[in-house]
Amino acid sequence: QPSPDQTIGMGIRSYDPEDPYCPYRPSLLHIEELCDSIVRSHRDTSQFRLEELQALRWKLFSREEIHAYQSKSVDEMWQHCAVRLTEAVQYVVEFAKRIPGFRGLGQNDQITLLKTGSMEVVLVRMSRCFNTENSTVFFDGKFASTELFKSLGCGDLMVAVFDFAHSMCALRLTELQMALFSSLVLINTDRPCLEDRGRVHRMRKDLEGCLSHMLRRDNQESLQHKLYQKVSVLQSLCSLHVEKLHWFSQLYPLTVHSVFPPLYKELFTSDLPSVDSL
Ligand SMILES: CNS(=O)(=O)c1ccc(CNC(=O)c2cnc(OC)c3c2cnn3-c2ccc(F)cc2)cc1
Predict the structure, then answer these.
(1) Close Cβ partners of 220 (under 8 Å, ≥ 6 residues apart)
(2) Do the beta carbons of residue 92 and residue 43 sit within 8 Å?
């Protein structure tokens, strides 16, 4: 029997790795603590709670409001979206910083992982604010369909972004599953120019262990390969975004150079990243 001092509260035994009766294997306790930390970080860095987005889901833009967006010039609408996208990325940067171990990585590796992964996590998170019943996404305080983004001149990109959000909704991820998947999208050992790949790999193994443990616990192992299949779609979406940005910057070099948010430029153009914007 466990010694009395190991029983706290409602008969829950404290964790003592030396105790043969210990209910937790160190790895299981570690996994549960890691999951708690990651889902808390995800919640704290998602600008809206799911209930808030749910309550807003039928707040649609009027014809006049849509027409006003569609009447914006290409560069005006690009500026507007760049600001929104940068805001979403800033929350992802904050999420990354709270992933246990992330701040232990070298500064350059943190920047490399964010430069290549932050947009991917923004796209994963967009499924939280996507209404599959009318294919609208929460943008600027109301729900909008792809037609609102017409003046961007990136119809194919926006359709792909909406389709991806739709396909993520179909997986019906819990916040914990989305949080763990988002951390795995960021902590990716295949990113180019990583200096300490081994350290990223060790973080990733822990996170993979968390995801597979939680999928097993929820009896949803089939989700595992569906999630990993999303990674290639994410990467092609991000390449398309960078391609469109390159096309836009050819047409409006001054807008990108002097009006776009610095963080947006550092993450999505070939300018060398500077630390202070992260
Ligand atoms: C992520 N957390 S959340 O609480 O669910 C949450 C959800 C939504 C919003 C406010 N909407 C957006 O930010 C937003 C909505 N739709 C987009 O695109 C359809 C956005 C957004 C930001 N960038 N882009 C975007 C632009 C161009 C592109 F190629 C890819 C993505 C705030 C917060």
Answers:
(1) 177
(2) no
| Whole-prediction pTM | 0.89
CA 32, CA 98: separation in Å to the nearest integer?
A: 16
DSSP H helices in the chain: 26-44, 50-56, 63-70, 74-97, 107-126, 155-170, 175-186, 197-217, 222-251, 253-254, 262-268
Report how far ligand 1's centroid is from the alpha carbon of 180 (Å): 20
| C-beta of 135 in contact with ligand 1 (< 6 A) | no
* Beta carbon of 244 within 6 Å of any ligand 1 atom: no
* Measured distance CA(81)–CA(122) in Å, rounded: 13
Task: Tell me if 137 CB under 6 Å of ligand 1.
Answer: yes
Cα-to-centroid distance, 126 and ligand 1 (Å): 6
Checking if the pLDDT of 2 tops 60, the result is no
46 close to 128: Cβ distance less than 8 angstroms: yes
Query: Taking every pair of C-alpha atoms in the chain, what is the biggest distance, in angstroms?
Result: 75
Dihedral sign of CA atoms 153, 266, 261, 107 in order = positive
Choose the residue to mutate in 57, 66, 137, 140 for probing ligand 1, maximizing ligand atoms within 8 Å of C-beta: 137
How far is residue 207 from each of residues 35, 120, 232, 241, measured CA to CA in Å?
8, 17, 19, 28
Residue 8, pLDDT > 70, answer no
- Mean per-residue pLDDT over the chain, rounded: 90
The token pair at 173 is: 């991820």
Minimum-distance ligand 1 atom for the alpha carbon of 244: 29
Looking at the predicted complex, does its ipTM rise above 0.90? yes
